[in-house]
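ENTRY TYPE: paired fold submission
RECORD: A
CONTENT: sequence, then structure tokens
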Amino acid sequence: QAQLVESGGGLVQPGGSLRLSCVASGFTFPLYGITWFRQAPGKERELVAHITTTRDPTYAPFVEGRFTISRDNPKKTVYLQMNSLKPEDTAVYYCYAEVYRGTWGQGTQVTVSS
């Protein structure tokens, strides 16, 4: 069965950086685009960034220029490099693949606070 496992979250001060990882298993990873979403307390889940099978990225306007999405197919991993973090970036970050009617990871908490 398809599985996505996120890691790399934590507590960081405003202006700091984190790199999230999403490791895939159970499906042919290079054939699928991968999306990062986030959900803050009391808010709806929102799209953060997406990377296609040909490594073309798209970003939500609120992370454009600060976050970078990338993928390593041999490692079956998608990364989200997050720089210049703001308190409003605090959320649980999830990765998602449109495989088997949609597969979500369990999420990783990112907290930006001084």
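RECORD: B
CONTENT: sequence, then structure tokens
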Amino acid sequence: VQLQASGGGLVQAGGSLGLSCAASGSIISIDVMGWFRQAPGKQRDLVARITRAGSTNYADSVKGRFTISRDNAKNTVYLQMNSLKPEDTAVYYCTALVRVTSYWGQGTQVTVSS
């Protein structure tokens, strides 16, 4: 399974960005898709995840600002980020859980200027 992320970039505080991540390869069913992020010098933390049925979980720091969604037919997960803050600056990684194996995308940089 390969994950290809797109989106990201540079935005001013208060702005919005959208990320997408498409999975390809020998996929029968992706159970959970999600996004993590890692700021310089910090650990990689969960941002949001969504099950195949559409149940979602968010980090407290992004609740009410970020929205995760997915298109099961396209094996694609999206992250809409609104009201961005400088502390949202990080490399964002998409992930997919297929049975008991987790796959990771290459990461995409999101930079929020103050």
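NOTES ON RECORD B: The chain has a mean pLDDT of 95. The two ends are 37 Å apart (CA to CA).
STATUS: closed
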